[in-house]
Amino acid sequence: MTQSQQTIEPWLRGIIRCPQCKGELTDAFHGAGEGAGNSEGNGDGDSEITELRCATCRLAYPIEGGVPVLLVELSRRTDG
What we know:
The chain is built from 1 helix and 5 strands, in the order H-E-E-E-E-E. By secondary structure, it is mostly beta strands. A hairpin with a 4-residue loop joins strand 2 and strand 3.
């Protein structure tokens, strides 16, 4: 498993919250261009990016090397 394919531990996901609204964060995947729906891939981890999403304020925070980056300035807006 490469660093980009790692996800954070379930116990940690249960205690961290959205830094903007303090809402609950859920583990999700964000397609990064063509081939995002291809789950077979070549193992380089470039087709999907692991992130944490807040349904309340609709922000998504990246996870880099298994570490959540919980900075509002580095989050992206989601449509749903």
